């Protein structure tokens, strides 16, 4: 059974617990600015590993010294679900203290 979409209120409540993450249309998004390109690339590798562990993948973009994520759940019709927030929490644990672009 596909995961259930979250209500607007549920999304807002979960976003309040994840500073830097925002709702952009039908996805939750976050950008990180890192010290340099090598650090950004390393973060991408770690995020990719978490995504494989969870079996849930975001749009992941590597810039010069930035990493951006946008995630929703395709199996729930492109809605935001608890799976998206689990991925966001795991990414936050990898990248504490990095500023939002």
Please supply descriptive tags for the structure shown above:
alpha+beta, 4 strands, 3 helices, 40% helix, 20% strand, 101 residues, four-stranded antiparallel sheet
Give a verbal description of the structure:
The chain is of the alpha+beta class and 101 residues long. It is built from 3 helices and 4 strands. The chain has helices at residues 8-16, 37-54, 82-94; strands at residues 22-24, 27-33, 59-62, 66-71. A 4-stranded antiparallel beta sheet has the order 1-2-4-3. Strand 1 (22-24) and strand 2 form a beta hairpin. Helix 2 (37-54) runs antiparallel to helix 3. It is globular, with a radius of gyration of 13 Å. The model has no long low-confidence stretch (mean pLDDT 94).
The N- to C-terminal Cα distance equals 36 Å
Percent of residues in β-strands: 15-25%
**Sheet with the most strands?**
4 strands, antiparallel
Quickly give the structural class.
Answer: alpha+beta
| Tally of helical segments | 3
Classify the helix fraction into a percent range: 25-40%
Mean pLDDT across every amino acid position? 94
Unreliable spans are none
Succession of helices and strands: HEEHEEH
Query: What gross morphology would you assign?
Result: globular
Got a strand count? Answer: 4
Cross-sheet strand order for the largest sheet: 1-2-4-3
